[in-house]
Amino acid sequence: MLKIALTKGRVEEQAIPLLEACGIDCEPLRNKKRKLVIPLGDDLEVILVKGGDVLTYLNNGVVDLGIVGSDVLDEQQNVGYELLDLKTGVCRFILASLAEYNPDEGRRQTIGTKYPNITKEYFAKQGKDVEIIKIEGSVELAPLIGLADAIVDITETGTTLRENNLKIFDWLRPISTRLVVNPLALKQKRNEIFPLVNKMKATIEEREAAKKEA
Q: What is the pLDDT of residues 100-147, one digit of tens each?
């Protein structure tokens, strides 16, 4: 049996149609109630976890595969496990602040973010030394109340930023959901893993082709 660590919430919701298109009955997942471990037939078991814990489960060998956002992989600086870009959860890292913010101001700036490693890397490439404040909640608050000069955050449509009178000053790296694998499982269960990966890949390619034709 293959075990998949699936990120709860939005990633989970977008993964279900993809799995169903691959011929997997996801009715137990759709009607899971409060269950966190959900068998999908005899060959697949889904474990619902927070995104930041997916690699922890992989690294400790308790799951074979994981479905998680690339933002988590980038922040944890561990992208070596990727098998497939699922083309869902597409959004982007941005630098944003109030309209009067000057990104080139000479003084040392304070940046609020949930992603300190990505933020540090971004400013280091620009040769800028900044103070980074890690925020777990609503990052948009930071410039509004004077906690930070600007924020590095994720946006899909920019609606939340606009509603809080924040402006995007730079677009950073893109984000999407990825299928990741435990390297040992890839060796031991390749005959189970690769047929699933191939089905997912074919389904994704069909979807992307349909989008281009639409």
A: 999 998 899 999 999 999 999 999 999 999 999 999 999 999 999 999
What pLDDT is recorded for position 80?
64
Q: What is the CATH number of domain 2-89+176-213?
A: 3.40.190.10
Nearest-angstrom CA–CA distance, 34 and 182? 26
Token pair listed for 166: 């924040």
| pLDDT for residue 77 | 85
* All CATH 3.40.190.10 domain ranges in the chain, comma separated: 2-89+176-213, 91-173
Identity at 43, one-letter amino acid code: D
Q: Which residues of 58-97 are buried (b: 16+ CB within 10 A; e: fewer)?
A: beeeebbbbbbbbbbbbbeeeeebebbebbbbebbbbbbb
Q: What is the pTM of this model?
A: 0.91
Contact (Cβ atoms closer than 8 angstroms) between residue 89 and residue 175:
yes
- Do 180 and 68 touch, CB atoms closer than 8 A? yes
Cβ proximity of 69 and 86 under 8 Å: no
Pick the CATH number of 91-173 from 3.40.50.80, 3.40.109.10, 3.50.50.60, 3.40.190.10: 3.40.190.10
